[in-house]
Specification:
The chain is built from 12 helices and 10 strands. By secondary structure, it is an alpha+beta fold. It folds into 2 domains: about 160 residues, no CATH class; about 110 residues, no CATH class. Monomer.
Length: about 300
Amino acid sequence: MNSKLKHTTLIKTEAKRLGFLSCGISKADFLEDEAPRLENWLNNNMHGEMRYMENHFDKRLDPTKLVEGSKSVVSLLLNYFPEETQCQNTFKVSKYAYGTDYHFVIKDKLKSLLHFIQDEIGEVSGRAFVDSAPVLDKAWAAKSGLGWIGKHSNLLTQQVGSFYFIAELIIDLDLEYDSVTTDHCGTCTACIDACPTEAITEPYVVDGSKCISYFTIELKENIPSEFKGQFDDWMFGCDVCQDVCPWNRFSKPHNEPLFNPHPELLSMTKKDWEEITQETFSKVFKKSAVKRTKFSGLKRNINFLKE
C-alpha cells in the first residue's frame, strides 16, 4: 500500500472513530466553478447585512491562501438529527441548535483528528475550520464526494439526508482524493415550493436576505414588516427546506450526547416562550448556538411572530 493510500485510510478510520458520519478528501486548489457563483450572489446582494461575506473573496476560493503550503482539504460531516423534536404548536428552534453549540463540539473532534495525524504520520501542519472562517464548506464537501448541493443550496447525501454539520481540516499532506458524486434532486421542487418566504429564487440559488434563518439570527435590526405572517412560527433558524426534502426520510438520530437538548426546550409552549425570562433563556440555552441571537434577539423574534 503506498503511503498516500495508507495515510488516507488512517485518517478516514480515525474520523469514524471520533463519531463523524463521513470523511471525504479533495486537493487543496482554487475553486474555479464557485468563483463566478459567489461573485454573482454577492453582486445581487443576496447576503443582505452579512457584510462579512464580502471579505476575503480570494481566501474563500483558494485554501492555499488560508493555510500556506496546504495540499489537501479533509471534509467531515457530523450528524445532528435529533431523537425528539419540540412539542406541537410552539415557536420553533432549528434542530441544529438544540444542544451544545456545534462549534465547540466539532472543534474538539477536529483537534483530536489533527493531533492523531501528527502522532501517526509525523510533521503535518494545518488548520481546523468550523464555519467560522472564509471557507466554502459545502463546495469542499461536494468536491470531496460527500454529497451534492441540493436545490435548497444545502449539501445532500443519499441514505443520510442533510441534517449534519460540515467541517474541514486543511493540511499540507498529499492524500488520495475522492471523486465528485452526482446530483439526485431530479425534477423535485419540494424545497422551493415549501419555503415560507420564497427565499429559493431559482433551483440552487437562495437569496440569503429573504431567508428566515437570516432574519432570526443574522439581522440585527427590526425584521421587515412585509414578512409578517410568513415565518411559520420559526423563532431561531428554519428547517422547512430540509424537513420537506425526500432524502431526509433517511435521517437517523445522532449519537452525540452533547447535542441532546435541554429537557425544557422540547416541552415549552408558545405561552412559555412569550413569558421567557433572561434566567430561563440562560438555563435552556446555556451552551447553545441560540446565544448568538441573545435574549433580546429571541424576544424580538417572538414578538414578531405573535404580533
